[in-house]
Amino acid sequence: MRKWLRRLFVELGRRVVVPRVSSRVVVLCYHSIHPTGSFRSATPALFSQHLSWLKQHCTIVHLQAAVRAASLSPAGQPVVAITFDDGFADNYEYAFPLLREHGVPATFFLTVGLLERNPVVLERLRTLWGAHASELRPLEWPAVREMQRAGMEVGAHTYSHPNLARLDRRTAELEVRRPKDIMEHRLGVPVRLMAYPFGKPHCDFTRETVDVVSGAGYEYAAAVTWRGIRASDSPFRIPRFTCSGDSVCTLRDQVSGAWDLLGAWQEWAPRGVRWSAKGPPAWWADVVHELGAGGAIGRDVPHGSNLEASRLDGEREGRGQAPEGPAVGLRL
Ligand SMILES: [Zn+2]
Fold this sequence. Notes:
By secondary structure, this protein is α/β, with parallel strands linked by helices. The protein has a single domain, classed as Glycoside hydrolase/deacetylase (TIM Barrel), CATH 3.20.20.370. About 45% of the residues lie in helices and about 10% in strands. It has 13 helices and 10 strands. α3 (about 65-70) links the parallel β4 (about 60) and β5 (about 80-85). α1 packs across α12 (about 280-290) and α2 packs parallel to α4 (about 90-100). Bound molecules: zinc ion. Zinc ion (ZN) binds near residues 85, 86, 157, 161 and 197. The site of zinc ion has 5 residues, from β5.
């Protein structure tokens, strides 16, 4: 069953979806880029391979430009935006030099309580990601400013990285308004972009969350759904592919449309068989593992993927030890 499910999704995608696609706008989501980190999305070498392939076969633009491009249904080369979530120091140390070397832009979504080194937020995130304290190194604000000056976009990723769907409205407002205020103070520019922590529609953000985010003054918000952007998509539900040590072959399948059936499954499958707030069915983990096996780094649960988000949700539901702590550190 696992083999035919994998073939069903990927081969159907390759044979049915890809030949019909005349235009593609795709957003990629990375987290940590590090040679050895336990929760890395890619090693610097793999990320450089991704950039080489993307630069050769795609037009790489900022996230806002990608959303605008989707409404124009561009023909020819796929349009791709590169994003990073969370705000790790390695984004500056490893990803930024490679982005500059290849001459391509990216967007960095910052968990502001992490950058502010709020000790409660640091401990919460260390527990959530199962990281050793020495691994959880936040970006420094001067590094963020340097990346901005070099043409990189920045956006907010809340203050303490909660599941916004589980917060009362007042707390959710604090989680999205406070980081915007802090970033605008620290960086001196309006902050119009945000990314939902974990990112799954219905599970990690809801229609009310979108109201809160738009009411706070954001103009774009990125989610996680494994398909390209459509002209009809709301700018507050931008679909993204998460990278979890995936090979260039997998990247090509994502950009070309072969994974869009997986995105359709995420959005439309009955709640009991797609992943839910209680986590994906066991077979889904095998499918995801198989799909990413070409370049798998060797972790059983990829950081930052929907799969991991579901696992973390499960922990916060009481199966693990991570506390919810929604109002953590909201005083500057
Ligand atoms: Zn995140």
